[in-house]
């Protein structure tokens, strides 16, 4: 009867466990710890126990018997084969039992490594968390420290600022006290002067007492004024100053200068104050006239007259405004009856009905901050190659070269034709006030019913050449007047420090002073004559009136055939 072999022991790798979230353990470490423990042996049934017990007791006898049979040699081949098969099965079970133990130990080692890695990661996380907390605490401490420092700095700044304002208040109060003391001293000086006069009448005062009474002499004390030398102006203002030197400095004689001061006295005079004496009218007018005549910067004007730079700038504008208000209505106005002017121009050129000669010049300026392109001067000649900006001055003059009409301030990029259309002269002509009169202009103006210009086309006839000659004589009156204007007042020759909005007032004052000098026959130094070549333009006039074209042809014909055009072409 074949003996039964016992079943193999259970393999630990085949043991199934519940999912991790269903385990009764409180954490993962308890779960892994339970796995590392040796698993309990599987329970055996009561039926199998006697079998294993008999098998264990029978094994030694069976092995002995198998050995006997092998050694006997005659014990039947079939039984021996069966015993050999049982032996092989026993070896297989042993091998399988040994392999299960090896797998179990390997799993233990892998789980131990896993737990070690998890513990290391937890330790690293804990270290990182501690470092982050420490860094946050340091940042918070630094922020609080900076806030405290900033607060302390601001408090210190406010404290110093408050101290500064307290000092200012103290200085203001001290200044007011000084002013009161000065007023009291002035009152005491006045009282002393009155007492001295009374004593002089009674014969009891000494000769020098009045001059010693608190500075009430010929040179009273001037408070709040910086001491500056005005020796040059005192020398010029002296009656013994040479007339030629005075004329060279102010572009006019002393008599004309005195007349201007007398006319402007009520407009520019100021009263003395408690703290300073007012600048005299003659010095005020002299500052303005010398500045316009020389074109020197305000810094040099300040040194010459012993005044502040801002004071000189203010005086120039005040006197120019007074000249425009007081002197312009007297010395620069359109004549109510131009018959005398027409007669003089006709005797000069032979052209009848000429009421004035017109010309437009450009005054250089510093490039403005707004509308720069509008003030760009497009007139480039040999002397004007650089980029420049300017404003225009259009003027009409009489036979003496005095202005009868001016239009000042239009941008330099505007052509002469557009400047004419925006002038008061054009409005006067549109109102019919220039009917029967000619205003002679250059080739940059259009031919109109009241504007007479030369011929500009090619291949001119003798009649047209003769007419252009006579028109040129009339135009030369205006160009010479502008040459004297710019030569007499050098501030018109270069870019000025005057603001653009104040420049028309200054230029108008120059035109009025030019008329004053021309009317009073002030001698003009030929060395001061200014060349107007920069104002020359390419002839570009248009014909706006067929009647004016016919009238010009008739004038040209009469000039030639009545012997008034000269003999230059014969």
UniProtKB/TrEMBL annotation:
Record-annotated DDE Tnp4 domain positions: 359-515
InterPro entries for this protein: HARBI1-like, HARBI1_dom
Biased composition (Low complexity): 45-55, 195-211
Entry keywords, A to Z: Hydrolase, Metal-binding, Nuclease, Nucleus
GO cellular component assignments: nucleus
Pfam families: DDE_Tnp_4
Cofactor: a divalent metal cation
Listed GO MF terms: hydrolase activity; metal ion binding; nuclease activity
Biased composition (Gly residues): 70-82
Top-level taxon of the source organism: Eukaryota
Protein name (Swiss-Prot/TrEMBL): Putative nuclease HARBI1
Native source organism of the sequence: Ananas comosus
Record lineage: Eukaryota, Viridiplantae, Streptophyta, Embryophyta, Tracheophyta
């Amino acid at each position: 009867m074949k003996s039964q072999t016992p079943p193999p022991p259970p393999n630990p790798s085949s043991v199934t466990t519940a999912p991790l979230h269903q385990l009764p353990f409180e954490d993962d470490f308890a779960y892994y710890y339970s796995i590392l423990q040796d698993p309990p042996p599987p329970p055996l049934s009561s039926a199998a126990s006697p079998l294993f017990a008999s098998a264990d007791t029978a094994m030694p006898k069976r092995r002995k018997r198998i050995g006997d049979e092998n050694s006997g040699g005659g014990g039947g081949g079939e039984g021996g084969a069966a015993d050999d098969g049982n032996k092989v099965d026993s070896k297989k079970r042993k091998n399988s039992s040994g392999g299960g133990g090896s797998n179990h130990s390997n799993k233990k080692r892998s789980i131990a490594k896993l737990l070690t890695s998890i513990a290391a990661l937890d330790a690293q996380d804990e270290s990182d968390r501690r470092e982050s907390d420490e860094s946050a605490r340091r940042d918070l401490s630094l922020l609080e420290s900076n806030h405290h420092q900033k607060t302390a700095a601001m408090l210190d700044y406010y404290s110093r600022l408050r101290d500064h304002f307290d000092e200012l208040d103290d200085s203001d109060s001290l200044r007011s006290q000084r002013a009161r003391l000065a007023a009291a001293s002035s009152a005491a000086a006045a009282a002393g002067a009155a007492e001295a006069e009374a004593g002089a009448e009674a014969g009891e005062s000494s000769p020098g007492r009045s001059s010693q009474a608190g500075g009430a002499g010929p040179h009273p004390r001037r408070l709040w004024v910086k001491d500056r030398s005005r020796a040059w102006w005192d020398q010029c203002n002296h009656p013994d100053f040479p007339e030629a030197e005075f004329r060279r400095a102010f572009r006019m004689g002393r008599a004309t200068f005195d007349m201007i001061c007398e006319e402007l006295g009520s407009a520019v005079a100021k009263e003395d104050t408690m703290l300073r004496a007012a600048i005299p009218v003659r010095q005020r007018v002299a500052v303005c006239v010398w500045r316009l005549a020389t074109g020197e910067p305000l810094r040099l004007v300040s040194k010459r007259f012993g005044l502040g730079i801002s004071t000189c700038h203010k005086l120039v504008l005040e006197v120019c405004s007074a000249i425009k208000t007081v002197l312009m209505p007297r010395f620069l106005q359109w004549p109510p009856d131009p018959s005398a002017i027409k007669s003089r121009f006709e005797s000069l050129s032979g052209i009848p009905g000429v009421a004035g000669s017109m010309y437009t010049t450009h005054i250089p300026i510093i490039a403005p901050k707004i509308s720069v392109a509008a003030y760009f001067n497009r007139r480039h000649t040999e002397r004007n190659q650089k980029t420049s900006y300017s404003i225009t001055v259009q003027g009409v003059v009489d036979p003496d070269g005095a202005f009868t009409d001016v239009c000042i301030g239009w941008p330099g990029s505007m052509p002469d034709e557009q400047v004419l259309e925006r002038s008061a002269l054009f409005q006067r002509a549109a109102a019919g006030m220039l009917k029967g009169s000619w205003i002679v202009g250059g080739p940059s103006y259009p031919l109109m019913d009241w504007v007479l210009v030369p011929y500009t086309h090619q291949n001119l006839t003798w009649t047209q050449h003769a007419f252009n000659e006579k028109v040129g004589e009339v135009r030369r009156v205006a160009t010479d007047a502008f040459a004297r204007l710019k030569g007499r007042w050098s501030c018109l020759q270069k870019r000025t420090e005057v603001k653009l909005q104040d420049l028309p007032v200054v230029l108008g004052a120059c035109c009025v002073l030019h008329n004053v000098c021309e009317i009073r026959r002030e001698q003009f130094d030929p060395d001061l004559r200014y060349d107007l070549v920069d104002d020359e333009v390419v002839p570009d006039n248009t014909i706006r009136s067929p009647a004016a074209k016919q009238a010009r042809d008739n004038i040209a014909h009469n000039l030639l055939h009545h012997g008034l055009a000269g003999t230059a072409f014969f």
